[in-house]
């Protein structure tokens, strides 16, 4: 029997096509075709033989067409072959990188989340370097049905071996219930957040939570972000948002939603205005972040900035990205602007001064400022500091400037 | 023949003799001076040339025969047609027909279109090539199949070798996009227009015989004159000298790779924050994938500050032309052109000036223009922890690129190498370069997608970059990061057979290249 996994072809980089056959001789054999054979030929052969031994295989031959795949990719491809050939409960695991051992708070900012196809190693390797707040390794729409199995193994290995440079590590699983079987490949391997697509009811969340509990033996180890993509999901948005303490945000998926309500998706987005507002309201009522759908334009950055700014104006805190080129524009759009920061500084400083002298009323430019306005200004200052737009000790020099 | 090896000042093992000639080991940057007079070709007399000035002969074969083509001669060509060159191969087809042997080909660069010459290297028509070798020719050479030893020179080093007589050209065959019957020529017009002929200028002046080959014979005088007919012996008219779409692409495109764009942007930010970029700066432009994107960022930054580059040194493209048109560059000094927009600008704009490698890059010139440049960005196949860089061989030991103007540009005030940390698992930052092409003392900054390393010699840049909060790492940190991601590579294996040498622009030998072992079939 002959089985295969992975990708080959002129345009393929950082991947390999692997074939495993049990029609061999007595000992295991590795045949390698690779551009990097002179540099890594021996190490590729070693890891393959080590894996065959680990899984207890004998007399099989491995054929690899390599285009510069990293070890975790080669291992994922070979494991995908092995698991087609024999039934085994074992997994060939890499150590988790210590660099990736950082927590992500539930309310951490999520301005930009970069989607990376779950079966594309080339894009995974650099996913963390572009400065997006989160990276989503996507097992759902970006992976062909016949490639789901090998993608799970690749995503598992990537979570362990790719340095994500501080980004929140998200994985979008397949729709529940099929997606539940994705969880064992990601939950133990350092995922911060599970993105649950086409979520329609609190039950979807509960099923995911049950499965996570079964895997980890604990509650509350992983954040959840449901994506609402249907009319029913929109109606149930608030219930979904409060269904678990681990839900940290509600996202909307407009492509499916507009199809579901029988509308055409337009650039003005009037057809989804209700749903977007409903999601924002439900999320805010539940105390979680509202996140906008995916921004499609990446060539025209001005159009992207317009989209992101109107999304922010509506109340969203972030938007999905499909291309690294979008990230800077998106981050900037969802960060406080210079003008906003200046205004907020004035208000927060006035509030600080008023508090110091025990005054209950805050006035800026001889106008009274209400408490919610102060609260919003404080939030803007807080964000500006987090995003590196404002020094933490700004008030010291600000006070000096004013004399 | 047994090769004797010595160590040069860079600590590299080099041969004492190459192709039967003694060579001088690299002595350190700026240490070597050659004495004596420049080389000169034989003195011609006008009486030997037609009174009507018509030097046209019936074919290239006739011209080569009249020029005295014979065994062991040196034939030079230029590479302005890049991969669309239809002339160079024809010379050796004719030599082969005539049974001529042991020629030395001395191109300003070779391209994959020249790979049919492998058969003439095999049958003895060509003894060896002195010029850039890549693609199939590079593979052939790396596997030790060329009888002679390859000599790799920079563009400036080629002019040096011609001027000081290290290489005496017997016949220069110059493909000319426009030419008159007297031999006056330019590259601005005609179906194979490539804009300038700077790489051929020295060949024309120093060769014993000069043959112009054109597919666009124009009435005397061919204006403007880029190559003067007084240096020319024969003119040959043929149907086609080049493939236009391979000479210049109508559309040079900015890279779409997000990693490369990130590197380009980080490089531009670095240059702005460290004040390398300033009003009236002198910059260099190129057509590499990162260079183009970098150029666009520079253009935007200059525009934003209302600054202007005093000079942009080409390799020009439509993007450099845009800078000239929109006032972010005042003048262009042009070495070579990469697209039709740049050629058009060259024709029409007097501030876009033809400027040959003789002026820009040559060690025997009275002043080094590259040391006046504020900023150059260059590529590299490898950079080591001492900032030494390799541009000619791949990490597996195979010849991959020519040197071009790379070594010459290292003399700029600020030399930045924007490179990815690794390419398809192959680390770019390594312990020691496979082949040394540029000494680390001349390389200031390495910009990768995962951080910037500044040469410790440039404390000034380190200070400014720190203050600007740029993502600095040491070169060791970058190397370790590359190895953590890719794994530590095996060293490429070589035999002790010499296959090529790398010259430093002063004519000394900076490194040697040996035959790869375990040849892949």
Produce the secondary structure layout.
The complex is a heterodimer of chains A (403) and B (521).
Chain A: E1 2-6, E2 16-21, E3 29-34, H1 37-54, E4 61-66, H2 71-85, E5 112-117, H3 121-125, E6 134-138, H4 148-161, E7 168-172, E8 193-196, H5 202-216, E9 223-228, H6 231-235, H7 237-241, E10 249-252, H8 254-260, H9 273-286, E11 289-291, E12 294-295, H10 301-314, E13 319-321, H11 327-334, H12 338-356, E14 362-364, E15 367-369, H13 371-386, H14 394-402
Parallel strand pairs in A: 3-4, 5-6, 5-13, 6-7, 7-8, 8-9, 9-10, 10-11, 12-13
Antiparallel strand pairs in A: 1-2, 2-4, 14-15
Helix pairs in contact in A: 1-2, 2-4, 10-11, 12-13
Chain B: E1 5-7, E2 13-15, E3 17-18, E4 21-22, E5 56-57, H1 60-66, E6 74-77, H2 88-97, E7 103-107, H3 118-123, E8 126-129, H4 135-142, E9 150-152, H5 155-163, E10 171-176, E11 178-179, E12 185-186, H6 201-206, E13 209-214, E14 234-237, H7 244-247, H8 258-273, E15 282-284, H9 289-305, E16 309-313, H10 318-326, E17 329-334, H11 340-348, E18 352-354, H12 357-361, E19 375-377, E20 382-384, E21 389-390, H13 406-409, E22 414-418, E23 422-423, E24 426-427, E25 429-430, E26 445-448, E27 451-454, H14 459-467, H15 475-486, E28 494-503, E29 509-516
Parallel strand pairs in B: 5-14, 6-7, 6-10, 7-8, 9-28, 10-13, 13-14, 15-16, 16-17, 17-18, 19-22, 20-25, 22-26
Antiparallel strand pairs in B: 1-2, 3-4, 11-12, 20-21, 23-24, 26-27, 28-29
Helix pairs in contact in B: 8-9
List keywords for this structure.
heterodimer; A: 403 residues; alpha/beta; TIM Barrel; nine-stranded parallel β-sheet; four-stranded mixed β-sheet; B: Glutaconate Coenzyme A-transferase; 25% helix
Provide an overview of this structure.
The complex is a heterodimer of chains A (403) and B (521). Helices cover 41% and strands 17% of the residues of chain A. By secondary structure, chain A is α/β, with parallel strands linked by helices. Chain A folds into 3 domains: 2-85, Ribosomal Protein S5, domain 2; 98-334, Phosphoenolpyruvate-binding domains (TIM Barrel), CATH 3.20.20; 338-402, no CATH class. In chain A, strands 11-10-9-8-7-6-5-13-12 form a 9-stranded parallel beta sheet. In chain A, strands 1-2-4-3 form a 4-stranded mixed beta sheet, covered by helices on one side. In chain A, helix 1 (37-54) runs parallel beside helix 2 and helix 2 runs antiparallel to helix 4 (148-161). Chain A starts with a strand and ends with a helix. Chain B is α/β, with parallel strands linked by helices. Chain B has a domain at 258-486: Glutaconate Coenzyme A-transferase (3-Layer(aba) Sandwich), CATH 3.40.1080. Helices cover 25% and strands 21% of the residues of chain B. Chain B has 15 helices and 29 strands. In chain B, the strands form 9 sheets. A 7-stranded parallel beta sheet of chain B has the order 5-14-13-10-6-7-8. In chain B, helix 8 crosses helix 9 (289-305). Chain B is globular and about 70 Å long. Chain B starts with a strand and ends in a 5-residue tail after the last strand. Chain A binds chain B through residues 13-14, 35-43, 67-71, 125-126, 129-130, 163, 323-325, and chain B through 258-259, 261-262, 395-397, 423-426, 449-450, 485-487, 489-490, 492-493, 516, 518, 520.
């Amino acid at each position: 029997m002959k089985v295969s996994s992975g990708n080959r072809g002129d345009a393929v980089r950082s991947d390999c096509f692997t074939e495993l056959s049990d029609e061999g001789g007595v000992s295991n054999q590795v045949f390698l075709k690779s551009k990097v054979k002179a540099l890594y030929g021996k190490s590729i052969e070693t890891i393959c033989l080590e894996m065959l031994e680990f899984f207890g295989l004998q007399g099989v031959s491995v054929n690899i067409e390599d285009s510069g795949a990293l070890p975790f990719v080669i291992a994922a491809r070979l494991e995908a072959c092995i698991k087609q050939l024999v039934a085994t409960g074992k997994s060939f695991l890499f150590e988790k990188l210590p660099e990736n051992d950082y927590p992500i708070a539930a309310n951490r900012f999520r301005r930009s989340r970069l989607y990376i196809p779950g079966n594309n190693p080339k894009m995974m390797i650099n996913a963390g370097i572009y400065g997006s707040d989160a990276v989503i390794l996507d097992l759902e729409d970006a992976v062909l049905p016949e490639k789901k199995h090998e993608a799970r193994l690749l995503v598992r290995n990537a979570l362990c071996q790719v340095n994500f440079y501080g980004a929140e590590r998200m994985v979008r699983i397949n729709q529940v219930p099929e997606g539940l079987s994705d969880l064992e490949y990601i939950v133990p391997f350092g995922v911060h957040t599970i993105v649950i697509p086409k979520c329609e009811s609190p039950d979807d969340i509960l099923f995911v939570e049950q499965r996570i509990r079964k895997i980890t033996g604990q509650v509350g180890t992983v954040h959840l972000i449901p994506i609402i993509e249907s009319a029913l999901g929109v109606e149930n948005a608030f219930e979904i948002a409060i269904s678990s303490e681990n839900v940290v945000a509600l996202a909307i998926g407009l492509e499916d939603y507009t199809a579901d309500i029988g509308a055409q998706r337009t650039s003005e987005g009037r057809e989804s205005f209700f749903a977007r507002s409903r999601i924002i309201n439900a999320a805010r009522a539940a105390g979680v972040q509202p996140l906008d759908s995916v921004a499609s334009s990446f060539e025209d950055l001005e159009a992207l900035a317009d989209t992101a700014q109107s999304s922010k104006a509506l109340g969203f805190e972030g938007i999905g990205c499909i291309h690294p080129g979008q990230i800077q524009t998106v981050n900037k759009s969802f960060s406080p602007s210079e003008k906003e920061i200046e205004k907020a500084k004035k208000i927060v400083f006035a509030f600080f001064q008023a508090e110091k002298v025990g005054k209950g009323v805050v006035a800026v430019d001889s106008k009274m400022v209400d408490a919610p306005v102060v609260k919003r200004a404080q939030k803007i200052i807080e964000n500006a500091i987090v995003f590196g737009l404002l020094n933490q000790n700004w008030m010291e020099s600000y006070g000096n400037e004013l004399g | 023949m047994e090769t004797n090896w010595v160590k040069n000042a860079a600590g590299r093992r080099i041969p004492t003799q190459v192709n039967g000639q003694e060579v001088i080991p690299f002595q350190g940057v700026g240490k070597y001076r050659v004495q004596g007079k420049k080389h000169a070709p034989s003195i011609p007399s006008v009486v030997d040339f037609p009174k009507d000035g018509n030097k046209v002969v019936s074919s290239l074969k006739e011209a080569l025969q009249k020029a005295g083509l014979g065994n062991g001669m040196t034939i030079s060509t230029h590479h302005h047609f890049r991969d669309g060159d239809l002339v160079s191969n024809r010379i050796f087809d004719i030599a082969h027909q005539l049974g001529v042997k042991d020629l030395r080909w001395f191109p300003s660069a070779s391209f994959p279109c020249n790979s049919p010459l492998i058969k003439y290297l095999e049958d003895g028509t060509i003894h060896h090539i002195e010029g850039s070798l890549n693609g199939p020719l590079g593979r052939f050479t790396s596997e030790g199949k060329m009888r002679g030893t390859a000599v790799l020179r920079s563009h400036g080093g080629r002019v040096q070798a011609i001027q000081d007589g290290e290489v005496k050209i017997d016949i220069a065959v110059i493909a000319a996009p426009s030419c008159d019957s007297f031999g006056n020529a330019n590259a601005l017009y005609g179906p194979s227009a490539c804009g300038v002929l700077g790489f051929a200028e020295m060949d024309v002046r120093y060769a014993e015989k000069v043959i112009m080959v054109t597919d666009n014979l124009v009435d005397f005088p061919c204006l403007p004159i880029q190559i003067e007919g007084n240096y020319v012996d024969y003119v040959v008219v043929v149907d086609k000298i080049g493939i236009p779409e391979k000479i210049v692409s109508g559309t040079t495109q900015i890279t779409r790779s997000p990693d490369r764009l990130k590197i380009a942007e980080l490089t531009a930010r670095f240059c702005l924050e460290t004040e390398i970029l300033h009003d009236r700066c002198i910059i260099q432009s190129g057509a590499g994938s990162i260079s183009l994107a970098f150029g666009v960022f520079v253009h935007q930054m200059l525009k934003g500050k209302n600054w202007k580059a005093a000079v942009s040194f080409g390799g020009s493209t439509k993007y450099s032309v845009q800078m000239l048109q929109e006032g972010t560059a005042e003048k262009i000094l042009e070495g070579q052109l990469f697209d039709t927009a740049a050629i058009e600008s060259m024709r029409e704009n007097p501030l876009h000036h033809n400027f040959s490698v003789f002026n820009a890059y040559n060690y025997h010139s009275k002043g080094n223009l590259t040391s006046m440049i504020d900023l150059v960005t260059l590529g590299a196949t490898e950079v080591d922890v001492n900032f030494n860089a390799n541009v000619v061989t791949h990490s597996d030991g195979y010849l991959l690129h020519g040197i071009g103007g790379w070594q010459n540009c290292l003399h700029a005030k600020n030399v930045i190498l924007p490179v990815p940390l690794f390419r398809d698992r192959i680390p770019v930052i390594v312990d020691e370069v496979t082949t040394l092409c540029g000494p680390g003392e001349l390389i200031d900054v390495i910009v990768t997608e995962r951080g910037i390393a500044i040469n410790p010699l440039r404390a000034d840049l380190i200070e400014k970059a720190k203050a600007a909060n740029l993502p600095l790492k040491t070169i060791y940190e970058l190397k370790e990061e590359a190895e953590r991601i890719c794994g530590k590579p095996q060293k490429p294996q070589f035999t002790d057979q010499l296959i090529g040498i790398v010259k430093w622009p002063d004519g000394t030998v900076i490194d040697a290249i040996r035959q790869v072992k375990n040849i892949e079939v």
